Structures are given as C-alpha cells and as structure tokens.
Amino acid sequence: MTRLEALHRELVECRACPRLVSWREEVARTKVKRFRDWTYWARPLPGFGDPRAALLVMGLAPAAHGGNRTGRMFTGDRSGDFLYAALNRAGLANQPTSIRQGDGLRLSGAFITAPCRCAPPENKPLPDELTRCSSWLDREVSVLRNVRVVLALGSIGWGAALAHFVRRGLRVPRPRPRFGHGAEAEISGGPVLLGCYHVSQQNTNTGKLTPEMIDRVLARAKALMVRT
Fold this sequence. Notes:
By secondary structure, the chain is of the alpha/beta class. The chain contains eight helices and six strands. The chain has a single domain, classed as Uracil-DNA glycosylase-like domain (Uracil-DNA Glycosylase, subunit E, 3-Layer(aba) Sandwich). Strands 1-3-2-4-6-5 form a six-stranded mixed beta sheet, with helices on both faces. A hairpin with a 5-residue loop joins strand 5 and strand 6. Helix 1 packs antiparallel against helix 5 and helix 4 crosses helix 8. The longest helix is centred in the middle third of the chain and has 17 residues. The protein starts with a helix and ends with a helix.
C-alpha cells in the first residue's frame, strides 16, 4: 500500500464535523428520485488523479448527489461534466465524462482535491469545518511531490490554497493575492497559484465560465507545469 492509499483509507473514516456527517448521511438516506437505486458513498472523499501530478486542481467540496453519491471528486454531476471535458481537451484526462468509479477515467499529470471532504449543506462549509479538514489537505499535498501549479476553482479554493502555503511556511506575497478568473500568484519556494471561476452550474449555465475560458486557464497551467 502506498502512502497516498494509506492516507485515503484513514481519511474516509473521518467523523470530525458533526454537521457534515449528519448532512452527508441524511442525503444518502433520502436520495433524490433519479438516484433512488444508488447506494450513496456518504463518506469523506479522497483526492483523485495522478500521484505524480504537476497540476493540483483545488475544488470546494463534494456535491450532495455528485461525489457524495459516487465516491469520487467531481463525478456524477454537471460540474464534473464540465471540468472533465475541459481536462480531456487539455490532454490531462483520457475521457471527457465521469459517471462513477470504475468507468475508466484516468488523469495524467493532474490530481483533484478539495479543502472540504464532505458534502456541506447549501454547498457552504463553515470556517471551523474548513479548519478541521485542513489537516487532510496538508497531508495529501505532502505526498504529491511533483506539484508545480495549483489551480483554484473559486475563491474558497483560492483561500484554502493560500492558507495551505502559509502552514507549509512558504512566503505568500503581500498584500495577499486576490482571487479572480485568470489570476496568477508566484509563491516563493512553492507552486504557482492560478485562479479559475468554479465549474458550478451557477457559473457555467449563465456564461460566467465558458469552455473557452477554462481552456485558456488550463493552457496557462500546462505552460507553467513544464517551465524550467
């Protein structure tokens, strides 16, 4: 068993946040009509992807009927459909769809994680929940030795990445870099941080985030991944 596998085996047993535990399990019991035949995962989600990745994609949290159902980051919902299609176009995923575990999806050069590992009510983790969950993020990233670029999907992912860098003792620029789509921050002694609007339906259905926009950010990430 690798270090990453051992960490993930430990992570999926976490019950540190009573509100999140209650919500993720209630969703799994009540379900929704279209997924009534599913047995929901209803546990914390480990990261997913290539352990040798140069690109770390930082999301927010599992969707109640997406990752909380399937047990894999950005799998089984419209946000994941948008993200994996983009990763496929960028040559970082072998297929553009993500339906369930075991569907053949593989990432190459990319790894997906999140600062909150359990589905939160209204997709809004509380600050104390993010604080408790931060140790899982720190431990997971410590195993990913080759990360050169962190792509933050949304402002919470951006803030979580910066907080992680601080905990690692890295020098974060002052004033602290602000999130924006296409924002870029050099972290002294660490990865480059890029910003992208979150792939939520709220953004993709309204045109705030288009396929062309995320493609440009991923192209920049790929250029930075190979920079010497």
